[in-house]
Structure formats: C-alpha cells, structure tokens
Specification:
The structure is a single chain. The chain is of the alpha/beta class. It has a single domain, classed as Spore Coat Polysaccharide Biosynthesis Protein SpsA, Chain A. 27% of the residues lie in helices and 27% in strands. The protein is built from nine helices and 13 strands. A nine-stranded mixed sheet has the order 5-4-1-6-11-8-12-10-9.
C-alpha cells in the first residue's frame, strides 16, 4: 500500500508574478481554502497517512496554515463561532516539512525526501494541479494501478501539440484504453514530441528513483528534472502512464484558476 506522499511546494511561482512575491501560489484561495489544502485532502482520501511538504524559506505561510491555532480556536469558541473553522478542518494525516535551499528543479526537491521515504514506494502530488475526480481522487487512480502492476505509475493528459513543449511527454505502448507502458520520456521537447501524452502532477514512484536522481545532470531550464530520472529508470524498471479521468486545473494558468473558482461557485 502507498502510505507516504511528497508535496513539492518550494518553487518561485514565476508564472504568477508579481503576486507570488508575497503570496505562495499554493496558498491561492479556492472557495475559502488555499489550493494546497485540496492536495492534502486528496492524499488523505486516498489512504495516505504521512506527508512531506517541501517548502522554501519564503513559504512559511504554508507551515503556519497547517499548524494548530489554539488562540484563534479559543476566541472563536468563546464567541460561539467555532463553526467558522469547520470548512478548513485539516485531514488527519501526519505532516512534516523540509526546506529546499534553492529552487533547483523538481528532481532536486524530490531528492530531499529520501530519508522520509526510506524503502517504501510513495506518491508525489504537485500542488499546481488541482484534480477533481469524477469517481476517485486523482492520486487514487494511480494507487489502484500500482496495486495491480506493482510498478511506477505517472498521470497523463492529452495535450494540444503547440503546448507539448511545456511538459514532459511520453512515448508508450498502449496496453488498454488510457493505460500505457512507457518506452521513453522527454522533458519539454522543442520539436517532434513523441506523442500528445503529457505528464501532469501525480506520480507513484519506487524508492529506486533516488538512485537515478543522483545521476541526473541539470536539464531543461538548468534544473534537475524528475523526468530525466524517470527516463534513466526506464532502463531497469517498468513505468506505466495513465490518462486520468478527473478534471485537471493548473492554477499556474490564470484562466484555469478562474475556471476552478467558478466551478466551486456553481456547485
């Protein structure tokens, strides 16, 4: 079973400047709760019991949000307003934090989780991506496939050709509808992408990924890319890709963030 998950939240949020100079993207409000709250809820709903959130020194508000606030709780209780916090109840998972000294890429961030992960396979949930599942939480789709195939699993989405240069893109053999066995993976291909299947922010990885992360050199954007470690891993280990059923919203894109807010407003 997958009981541990990592949430990398140390990036600069450059796509959302200038507001991310003072408010982490992960704290953008959605229906009264910050985006990262929904990620933690998704993990908890999928059976995750331990979470490691990777932050930077400018992301203390994330740590504060998940901390207890006894003074506020006491004030609200004295005024019979404790119901105001009910919408923001933190799921019952054990949360730890670690700081990434420099934003050197997703691969570098994940490498900081080695001690936390130990010998266990684990989930990765990127807080940029809010996935509203039709039947299951986004990461639960991958967990179910991990149980079946006992291999690494990554989430995929079909993307228009002109947008593929912004993603990791796979070359895979279709095993059944929406499920692929990866043959190759390329980070942000400038030309001739191997497919229209892009990697989005959900992964199930075995602890062997750390061995490959140690071999990675800076790639696209001068950063240590998780995609490059997965590419090395394919030489030895199977990795499956699943086009997820849920609706994915990238809150780094203002139009999708507004669509997400409107979706909650219409419920």
């Amino acid at each position: 079973m997958i009981k541990k998950a990592v949430i990398p939240a140390a990036g600069y949020g450059t796509r959302n400047l200038p507001i991310t100079k003072v408010i982490p993207k992960e704290m953008f409000p959605i229906n009264g709760k910050p985006a990262i709250h929904y990620i933690v809820e998704e993990a908890a709903a999928s059976g995750i019991e331990e979470l490691l959130i990777i932050v930077s020194r400018s992301k203390n508000s994330i740590i504060d949000y998940f901390d207890d606030s006894p003074e506020l709780e006491a004030i609200l209780e004295s005024k019979n307003k404790q119901h105001l916090l009910q919408n923001a109840q933190i799921p019952k998972v054990h949360i730890q934090f670690v700081r990434q000294p420099r934003a050197n890429g997703l691969g570098d961030a994940i490498s900081l989780a080695k001690r936390f992960v130990g010998n266990d396979s684990f989930a990765v949930l990127l807080p940029d991506d809010i996935i509203l599942g039709k039947e299951k939480a986004g990461i639960l789709e991958l967990i179910d496939l991990y149980k079946q195939y006992k291999g690494n699993v990554i989430a995929l989405k079909e993307v228009n050709e002109d947008e593929l240069k912004n993603y990791g893109v796979i070359n895979g053999e279709e095993m059944e509808e929406s499920l692929y066995l990866l043959k190759d993976i390329i980070e942000k291909p400038e030309s001739s992408p191997p497919s229209n299947l892009a990697v989005i922010g959900r992964y199930i990885l075995s602890p062997s990924i750390f061995k490959y992360l140690e071999q990675v050199i800076p790639g696209a954007g001068g950063e240590y890319q998780l995609t490059d470690a997965i590419k090395l891993m394919l030489q030895q280990d199977n990795c499956f890709g699943k086009v997820i059923n849920g609706q994915r919203y990238d809150i780094g894109k203002m139009d999708e963030y507004l669509q997400l807010i409107n979706r909650f407003g219409s419920v």
